[in-house]
Amino acid sequence: MKKETLKRIYNEIKKYNTIYIVRHIGPDPDAVASELALKNTITETFKDKKVYALGTGVSKFKYIGKLDKINEFDYKNSLIITLDVPNISRIDGLELPKFNNVIKIDHHPFVESFKGIEYIDETASSTCEILLDLINNTKLKMTKEIAETLLIGIISDSNRFLFSPCDDKVLMKVSLIIKRYKINLQTLYNKIYKRPMSEVRLMGYIASNLKITKNHLAYIILENDIVSSFNADASSASNMVNDFNNIEEFIVWLFVTKDQKNNIYKVNIRSRGPIINEIASKYNGGGHKYSSGARVKTQEELNNLINDLDNLCKNYMKDL
Ligand SMILES: [Mn+2]
Fold this sequence. Notes:
The protein has helices at about 1-15, 30-45, 125-135, 145-160, 170-180, 185-195, 195-210, 225-230, 235-240, 275-280, 300-320, and strands at about 20-25, 50-55, 80-85, 90, 100-105, 115-120, 210, 215-220, 250-260, 265-270, 285, 290-295. The protein is α/β, with parallel strands linked by helices.
């Protein structure tokens, strides 16, 4: 069944000369790596196709590759492939409803239909792992560069195979491409994990100022002047939420940063027990069961979100 859908996706790709690839706003390495790997395997396989990997660029992820910028779209005769995003409102780079032909490839829980072919594998560690399956099961070509890009997404989204889901299947697939393309993991890790000292100092600030409730919820609101005093930007501060896993004193934790341009609070939430994506979706967000994001406009909404998560922790602890 799954293999059949992968073959259908390949046949669709074959049909179209113009293909746009998009992913979610506020990209992470899996989002960016998946769109560039897919673009590269399509252009490697079909030399004549015009393929665009779209969305706002992030300087931190420049090492993964360069994104495309276009202003005019062929709405009717093109194919859109959405990666790593379950809801239309979080797509970055184009307005999906305007297009006729859509393929969705994702590993997040289903949120809404994109009215095309949908391939959702919640057991996959990352969208890049699904694309590895796509290449392994079709005539799409693999190169060393594509394999490395896919590995960047798989390694980042699984945090070096720490987060679930992570199983024997992904380790087997990864080990095969590392061997076949003689990939140097150390070089790759250096690219993914190298960071300036100022970020580590910011982590120290966060560790010292994180508030922990009696229900085992931890949170911090990172004002922009604090973040910039450490020479960091809001998105890298927000992503540090991943570095606070497995801490005894809390089971759910959230980092709040401010998006000055759109005047909203961006909330990044993690859990090692309670399921958080239902609450996140109440606050203009969503995501995985244990890893979600939300966006709220006012301090009041933010307080409500924190209260809801605190209650979630309380109920979870009661049932243990
Ligand atoms: Mn992902």
